[in-house]
Every structure is written in C-alpha cells, then in structure tokens.
C-alpha cells in the first residue's frame, strides 16, 4: 500500500482482522459475479522456492477470456494484473481452478465454515 493510503488509514481498527489472499479472492469473485453476472473462479498457485506456501487470486471470464481481479484500496473490484511476489518466492505455478462453490466445499471440509477449524481453547459462545 502506498504511503498516502497507509497514512490515511493509520490507526483504523487496529484490532481488526486482516484478510489474506483466500478471503480477498472470495470477496473479489463473489462481488464481481453478483454485479457483472459473469463466471468467476479462484486460482490457487504454489511457489517453487517456498514449499507449503500457496496463493489465491480471483479471475472473471470477460468476453471469453479469464482476467485477474484486484481489490483497490477503496474495496472496488477491478480487472488488473496477476499478483506478483519477490524473487525469493521463485516461480508461481497455478494448479487449481475452483468455482466459488468448489472453494467453499474445500473450506467446509477443513472445518472453517462451521467453526470446527478453530484452534483448541477457542469457543464460539
């Protein structure tokens, strides 16, 4: 985030949760699909030099072409570039292309949609 944006939001909800790539990809795909009425998917990629590190980013099919979706600092979803990472991550290789329904099924299977995936000692009461 650029300095002026960081300064603008400095101190804003400091105890809030920072969404990561999976949550961002769900938000981007769902928002774009509902507003633009086009097919969307979430692309899961791995890095050659960072084992066990994956990345998720949404795409929308526009005029028959899959285009990357990006969330702007003002939470708008726009067509943009594929997320880039530093050279220490190595090459990024896409290996899964999931619809929102498929992604939700995977998250559900891991217990994240019904609180079974929370850490021990944390309750939902």
* Poorly predicted tracts of residues: none
User: Count of DSSP helices?
Assistant: 3
The run of helices and strands is: HHEEEEEH
> Structural class, from helix and strand content?
alpha+beta
Q: What would you call the shape?
A: globular
State the domain count: 1
Helicity, as a percent range: 25-40%
Q: What is the spatial order of strands in the main beta sheet?
A: 4-3-2-1-5
- Round the Cα radius of gyration to an integer and report it: 16 Å
Instruction: Determine the mean pLDDT.
Output: 86
Description:
Strand 2 (50-62) and strand 3 (65-71) form a beta hairpin. The chain is built from three helices and five strands. It has 125 residues and is an alpha+beta fold. It has one domain (17-109). It has helices spanning 3-9, 21-36, 100-109, and strands spanning 40-47, 50-62, 65-71, 77-80, 92-98. The protein has a five-stranded antiparallel β-sheet. The N and C termini lie far apart (36 Å).
Descriptive terms for the model:
125 residues; alpha+beta; 5-stranded antiparallel beta sheet; 5 strands
